[in-house]
């Protein structure tokens, strides 16, 4: 019976401490908290909770518990004083302050009595006398406080009593119980053990009365803490429950009474501590707590105000240390669902989607065309937020296979796909990784992610417009410079042409004349060809296409490099195409020259020419330094983005545009440290003739 009673007393003090602390924190954090003297009430409850914790942990007779009891009584007294200001009565009740001050002084005398008890610890008679003084001072405090409580309630207006009755009842219960407790202690020359142990019940009663007073009507009875406070409080309750269980079991083991009791107790504490260290920091546990709190304490899962503030802060983050906008866009969506990582896919020029940014997932291998054009059309037309788990289970119908390619489904970490739409146009798709505590997405997730997706799409569209405007401005500046260059070269060509004509007419030496004429004509031809190239960017200019034998052209170019670097033609199938031979040669020379510059002196560059249905395929391979995926996506084919000192940065861009003008396509694959592969696809002559005939027929019908 003794052990059970001790455990009950311990748990009651612990429950009183937790209840007082929770109510105190709620009063501090909740702005809707109604009632008089909110701050003073929160302070008094906090001090009472600390005292209750000390009694539970150190015992009611410990010095620290007795010292904290003084601070707790001062807290209740301060709360009592602040209650008088509820209806401004303190302005006309001047005597209140001296009475409260005197009572506080009486309670502070307990510190002097503690010092005296320590000084005369070996003298029993002195100890009895000091305790009598301590009981007397406490009786004075209780009597004075009860008088003030009586005056507080009786002297209040009828309307004020509605707010004051519960706090007054709580203070009255505390001081009335202490009055009886210290009366019996004074008469019996000692602390009554049973009454001292029942003080926890009085504390619980006072907390309950204060809670009713603070939440005194139906509107205030709705529990509306912030989500962060609810999560932290719930975590605190779990930790407190864990500590209670641990202490109960440890105390039980200590009463085994055998020689192994202490060993069992120590072993249990060690194992419980290790388990706590392993489990409590778990992100999975935190996720479970957050979901549980949201489900059971709130009508909605999300705190929309907090989510919007966090989203705005993430997107608006600036400075040299801030991540690029595309990465921040992924993070802004991932933060909503607690996803640890994510990726952003943006449209390619042919309609598919490619990887544009990663956030905390650098190891994932993504194909060049991450999502085909059919999948991109599905997201744009349906605006569907895709849960990949539903696709894996086969429970989602109507979703084309191209919207969730095999490489996405193969990785179990890939969890959800959120489309970003701007004016019903797909700007991108965000792929979210599975959160530590995975769950089924519901209507609230879909609504919030859809709104966030539209907002993000507007930011990305704005950045794309800014980039396009900047590129147009740079092109304008480049075109103005080229116009001056073309004007000067045209004048030079005219002068040289005139000089050649004059020399032909007036030179007397036939041999000199012939040599001069030949030289000048060659220079004139070169300058005229240069003017033609400078005037042609990305279009054929209406020029008639030539019939080109690709193998011969490649052998000619490889021969030009024979003295400088080894360029090897590995395969040379018979491939004839139609296009501008000069432009094609210019593009091939640029790609081969880049491969040569990227390779070591003894590392050959390989050319591979073969046919596939309808197309000639030419590959330019090197084993040089290679390029990063980020460089290929953002800089390789962007004009004026050169990695060479003094370069214009238009070589790769011009090569791609020249090949496109002939109906072809230029792709690139590269790995850093391994090398680069440029892949040219050009329609064969038969395919080109068929396309031209179909185009002409369409124009005639129109």
UniProtKB/TrEMBL annotation:
<feature type="transmembrane region" description="Helical">
    <location>
        <begin position="263"/>
        <end position="280"/>
    </location>
</feature>
<feature type="transmembrane region" description="Helical">
    <location>
        <begin position="194"/>
        <end position="215"/>
    </location>
</feature>
<feature type="transmembrane region" description="Helical">
    <location>
        <begin position="64"/>
        <end position="84"/>
    </location>
</feature>
<keyword id="KW-0597">Phosphoprotein</keyword>
<feature type="transmembrane region" description="Helical">
    <location>
        <begin position="166"/>
        <end position="188"/>
    </location>
</feature>
<feature type="transmembrane region" description="Helical">
    <location>
        <begin position="96"/>
        <end position="116"/>
    </location>
</feature>
<keyword id="KW-0472">Membrane</keyword>
<dbReference type="GO" id="GO:0000155">
    <property type="term" value="F:phosphorelay sensor kinase activity"/>
</dbReference>
<dbReference type="InterPro" id="IPR004358">
    <property type="entry name" value="Sig_transdc_His_kin-like_C"/>
</dbReference>
<dbReference type="InterPro" id="IPR003594">
    <property type="entry name" value="HATPase_dom"/>
</dbReference>
<dbReference type="Pfam" id="PF02518">
    <property type="entry name" value="HATPase_c"/>
</dbReference>
<keyword id="KW-0812">Transmembrane</keyword>
<dbReference type="InterPro" id="IPR003018">
    <property type="entry name" value="GAF"/>
</dbReference>
<dbReference type="InterPro" id="IPR014265">
    <property type="entry name" value="XrtA/PrsK"/>
</dbReference>
<dbReference type="InterPro" id="IPR029016">
    <property type="entry name" value="GAF-like_dom_sf"/>
</dbReference>
<dbReference type="InterPro" id="IPR036890">
    <property type="entry name" value="HATPase_C_sf"/>
</dbReference>
<protein>
    <recommendedName>
        <fullName>histidine kinase</fullName>
        <ecNumber>2.7.13.3</ecNumber>
    </recommendedName>
</protein>
<feature type="domain" description="Histidine kinase">
    <location>
        <begin position="484"/>
        <end position="686"/>
    </location>
</feature>
<feature type="transmembrane region" description="Helical">
    <location>
        <begin position="236"/>
        <end position="257"/>
    </location>
</feature>
<feature type="transmembrane region" description="Helical">
    <location>
        <begin position="40"/>
        <end position="58"/>
    </location>
</feature>
<keyword id="KW-0808">Transferase</keyword>
<keyword id="KW-0418">Kinase</keyword>
<dbReference type="Pfam" id="PF01590">
    <property type="entry name" value="GAF"/>
</dbReference>
<feature type="transmembrane region" description="Helical">
    <location>
        <begin position="128"/>
        <end position="154"/>
    </location>
</feature>
<dbReference type="InterPro" id="IPR005467">
    <property type="entry name" value="His_kinase_dom"/>
</dbReference>
<feature type="transmembrane region" description="Helical">
    <location>
        <begin position="7"/>
        <end position="28"/>
    </location>
</feature>
<keyword id="KW-1133">Transmembrane helix</keyword>
């Amino acid at each position: 019976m003794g052990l059970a009673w001790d455990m009950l007393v311990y748990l009651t003090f612990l429950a009183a401490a937790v209840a007082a602390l929770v109510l105190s924190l709620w009063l501090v954090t909740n702005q809707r908290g109604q009632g008089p003297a909110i701050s003073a009430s929160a302070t008094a409850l906090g001090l009472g909770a600390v005292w209750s914790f000390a009694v539970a942990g150190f015992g009611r007779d410990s010095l620290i518990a007795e010292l904290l009891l003084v601070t707790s009584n001062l807290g209740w007294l301060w709360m009592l004083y602040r209650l008088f200001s509820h209806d401004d009565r303190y302005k006309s009740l001047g005597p209140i302050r001296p009475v409260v001050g005197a009572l506080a002084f009486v309670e502070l005398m307990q510190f002097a009595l503690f010092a005296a008890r320590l000084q005369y610890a070996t003298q029993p008679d002195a100890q009895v006398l000091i305790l009598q003084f301590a009981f007397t001072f406490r009786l004075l405090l209780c009597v004075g406080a009860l008088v003030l409580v009586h005056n507080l309630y009786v002297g209040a207006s009828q309307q004020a009593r509605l707010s004051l009755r519960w706090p007054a009842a709580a203070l009255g219960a505390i001081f009335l119980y202490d009055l009886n407790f210290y009366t019996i202690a004074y008469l019996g020359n000692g602390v009554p053990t049973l009454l001292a142990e029942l003080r926890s019940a009085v504390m619980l009663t006072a907390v309950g009365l204060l809670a009713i007073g603070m939440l005194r009507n139906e509107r205030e009875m709705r529990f509306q803490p912030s989500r962060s406070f609810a999560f932290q409080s719930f975590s605190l309750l779990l930790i407190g429950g864990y500590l209670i269980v641990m202490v109960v079991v440890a105390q039980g083991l200590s009463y085994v009474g055998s020689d192994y009791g202490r060993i069992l107790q120590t072993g249990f504490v060690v194992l419980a501590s290790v388990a706590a260290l392993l489990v409590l920091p778990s992100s999975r546990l935190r996720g479970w707590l957050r979901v549980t709190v949201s489900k059971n304490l709130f009508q909605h899962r999300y705190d929309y105000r907090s989510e919007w503030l966090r989203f705005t802060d993430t997107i608006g983050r600036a400075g040299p240390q801030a991540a690029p906008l595309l990465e921040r866009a992924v993070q802004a969506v991932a933060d909503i669902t607690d996803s640890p990582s994510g990726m952003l896919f943006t449209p390619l020029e042919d309609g598919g989607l490619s990887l544009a940014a990663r956030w905390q997932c650098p190891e994932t291998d993504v194909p060049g065309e991450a999502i085909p054009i059919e999948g991109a059309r599905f997201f744009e037309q349906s605006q569907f937020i895709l849960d990949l788990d539903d696709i894996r289970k086969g429970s989602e119908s109507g979703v084309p296979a191209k919207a969730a390619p095999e490489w996405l489904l193969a990785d179990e970490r890939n969890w959800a796909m959120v489309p970003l739409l701007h004016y019903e146009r797909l700007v991108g798709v965000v792929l979210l990784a599975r959160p530590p505590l995975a769950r089924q997405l519901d209507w609230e997730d879909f609504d919030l992610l859809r709104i966030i997706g539209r907002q993000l799409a507007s930011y990305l569209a704005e950045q794309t417009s800014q980039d396009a405007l900047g590129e147009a401005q740079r092109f304008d500046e480049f075109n103005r410079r080229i116009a001056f260059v073309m004007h000067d070269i045209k004048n030079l060509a005219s002068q040289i042409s005139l000089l050649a004509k004059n020399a032909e007419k007036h030179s007397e030496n036939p041999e000199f004349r012939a040599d001069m004429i030949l030289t000048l004509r060659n220079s004139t031809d070169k300058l005229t060809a240069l003017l033609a190239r400078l005037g042609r960017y990305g279009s054929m200019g209406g020029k008639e296409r030539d019939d080109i034998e690709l193998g011969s052209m490649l052998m000619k170019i490889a021969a030009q490099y024979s003295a400088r670097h080894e360029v090897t033609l590995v395969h040379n199938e018979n491939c004839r195409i139609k296009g501008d031979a000069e432009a094609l040669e210019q593009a091939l020379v640029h790609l081969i020259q880049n491969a040569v510059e990227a390779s070591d002196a003894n590392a050959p560059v390989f050319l591979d020419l073969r046919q596939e249905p309808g197309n000639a395929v030419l590959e330019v391979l090197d084993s040089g330094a290679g390029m990063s995926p980020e460089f290929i996506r953002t800089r390789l084919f962007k004009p004026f983005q050169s990695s060479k000192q003094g370069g214009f940065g238009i070589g790769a861009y011009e090569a791609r545009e020249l090949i496109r003008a002939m109906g072809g396509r230029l792709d690139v694959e590269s790995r850093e440290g391994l090398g680069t592969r440029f892949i040219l696809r050009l329609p064969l002559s038969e395919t080109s003739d068929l396309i031209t005939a179909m185009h002409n027929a369409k124009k005639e019908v129109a």
